[in-house]
Structures are given as structure tokens and as C-alpha cells.
Description:
Blueprint: E1 4-9, H1 13-24, H2 26-33, E2 37-43, H3 49-55, E3 58-60, H4 64-67, E4 74-77, H5 85-94, E5 98-101, H6 104-121, E6 125-126, H7 137-144, E7 150-156, H8 159-171, H9 175-185, H10 193-196, H11 199-213, E8 223-224, H12 232-240, E9 243-254, E10 257-268, E11 280-287, E12 291-298, H13 302-319, E13 350-359, H14 365-375, E14 380-385, H15 390-394, E15 399-405, E16 408-409, H16 410-421, E17 431-435
Helix pairs in contact: 1-13, 5-6, 6-11, 8-9
Amino acid sequence: MKPVNIGLLGLGTVGQGVANILVRNATEIERRAGRGIKVKTASVRTQGKNLAGTLGIETTSDPSTIVNDPDIDIVCENMGGEQPALDLIMSAISQGKHVITANKALIAIHGNQIFEAARKHGVIVAFEPAVAGGIPIIKAIREGLAANRIDWLAGIINGTGNFILSEMASKGRDFADVLAEAQALGYAEADPEFDVEGIDAAHKLTILASIAFGIPLQFDAVFTEGISKISREDVAFADELGYRIKHLGVARRRADGIELRVHPTLIPQERLIANVNGVMNAVLVQSDAVGPTLYYGPGAGSEPTGSAVVADIVDVVRALTTDAQQRVPHLAFQFDALSNQPVLKPEDFESAYYLRVQAEDKPGVMADITSIFGELGISIEAILQKEPSEEAAANNANVPVILLTRTVREGLMLSAIEKIGALNSVSDDLSMLRVESLS
């Protein structure tokens, strides 16, 4: 049987990983797929030209020639960004070519359109490498947990943010200092907004929630909050209370809708996911039959992400001769069975909360704060009031007061913060973070 020909759109970090793995493990991969797999052509700028020559791969500066090549069976998009990737993928689909992409933004924002076109033309669009790099989390949820009703999932799905928070926790460093190091190490871009403000994680959470709950992709509905305002003081206070701060993507099924949120989160230190450090990723999934399952590994990198791309290639090759109706649905659920369950607004989220206020060190202040919680029916789990230093006491400086609440609707918590902020004895330097037990 003749080999399956692959076209690589982009031979950068991920594309090179794909090419290297396909050549190095060619025999093992053929044994698994049942056919040989060969990279025929790769689109390149300058990066990757030497590797292409060494591996005997044709190159082109025009990616459309790969899409239009009748000898190419599968197109692997490794370019990133929305355009021209979207146009190239839609063109490949219209010509009956299968597509594999590592482009999480493309799937999160345009996935509904892409999958509809793929269904119409009877082709597969695979996207395992789009979430958590080398961790096979898409297959785990879509296929491995197919017998389960998934209740919620929570993931550390951006390595840059996790590296920054890990360094702040272990070494007591400031956010700006660690961000500069992350940029120097190549973990963060010169413009780090997508990583530190949660946009990258929101793309990935959009995809995970769709395959977990069978809902359409809804990136615009994800609540997103970054880590740039996390202080080393909050990291230290969380540790004192028995928590670690992680930048989590959380998707939770509730009777009245779906919560989709990305934000810094306090997690009990004894949870395994709280001990995932550095640039590593992890996703915790809670389902009814199997209970909690944790998936851990490198979330980026040439060969970890390349491994996920090649795994998708093998899946597509295996399915080439199967009827399109018998293939695994793109979003895990049959197309006509996707749910219209609403995505909840932030004020309807339910969580426990960490609140740090800077308050005057005098009698009655704590009573004023706690009475506001009492009026709104918010239960307090713990209070930590720090003694002022001699210098602070001499200058009548405000002191930090930290409160942990029990689970409450976010709208009520925001009302409490507004009332507390209006107290004359409290400064406007308030910090609110969500707390998840993940039990």
C-alpha cells in the first residue's frame, strides 16, 4: 500500500518536531498506522530549510501549493494565528483533504465553522496538539471518558503563567522580575499578554469545555482574568493559609448552565495539581463513573507538541478507509446532539473567595467588615489578621486582613467588596481571588 503523503504548513518549532519524529520513528509509526507516512512538502520561510534538506523534504515559500497539491492526503497546519491559516484550512477541506492543527486560537474562535465544513466534505479535522502540548487530553476526554458524564474540569494549561507563579511561590519574587526571566528564557513572548492575561488558556478551555459537555465552541463567553496583579504578599498569605495560587481554567456543569472561567485560583496544597510547577501543564477531570483523573506533562515544545500532531496523523491514517459517519465526532458528541445549555455570566459563578484588605489597626474595624458579610449571608471560613510592624504601628499604617469565605455566588461577593471598599477605615487596595477545593 502506498505511503500517505503529508504537507506541513510551517516548519518552525512544531513542524520540525513533527518531521523529526516521523523520520526517526518511521518503522514504529508504520506498524501502528498500517501504512507508511511521508512528509512530501513543507512551506518554509528561512527557519527549517536545512532540516528539510537533510530529511529529503520538498520546500515551498507558498503554502497554498501544498493545499492544492493532489498528491498530498493530509495537511498539518503549524503556522499559528487566524490568517492565513483559516483560509488555507478551509481550502484544504473543500478539496477533500484531512487537516491536523496545533492552532488553539483558530479552533476556539473558528472551530464551529471549520467542523461544519469538514462534516460537509467528509474529512477529519484533528486538533490534539492545540491543548496542553504533549498531553493527550483531547483523546482522554473525547474517547477514554466517553462512558462518563463529566461534572467539571480544571487545568493549568499555560506553562508561562505556571512558571511565573511557581517562581513567585518558591523564591518570594515579584511578578515583573519573574516575567523578565521568562522572556529571557524564551517561555514568554516580548508581548506576553496572551500568556499572562489568560487569553491562551481561554482558547484551550473553550476547546476542553466543548468536548467535555457537548456544547458549541464559545470563546467569547469565557471569563478571563490574568496574573499580572498577583503580588508576592498574596502568594505568601495563601501559603500561610495552606494554599497555592495557580492560574486555572475551570469549566463546571451546573443545573442552570456552564461556568467557563480562567483566573488565578487558590488550591489546597495537598492537591496533586497544586504541586505542578515550572512550565508543566496538568488537567484534572471529575466524572461520574471513574471519579477524578489527572493528566500531566509538557504543554509545549517541539517534540512534545510534535508527538501530539503525529498521534493525530496516525488516527487519520487509520480512519482513511472508514465511513465518515462512523468516525469519532470532532467535539465528542454527535453534531445534532450538541447542547444549547447556556454559559453563565460571571455574577452567577459559585466559588469560595480569598479577600485581602488593607485596614486601619483600631477597634471596630474587623466588626464592620464581618458585619457586611453577615448582612449578605456570606459565611466566613477563616480570618488572618497580621500584626503591624513597629514602624507601621508608629505611622498608623494600615495592616492586611485576609478572609476566606465559603462557597457563595460571585454577585454577592462583589456586593460585599463594594461595601467594604466604601468603609473609611479601609484603603482601596483590595485583592479578591477565587478558591477551589477541587475535591
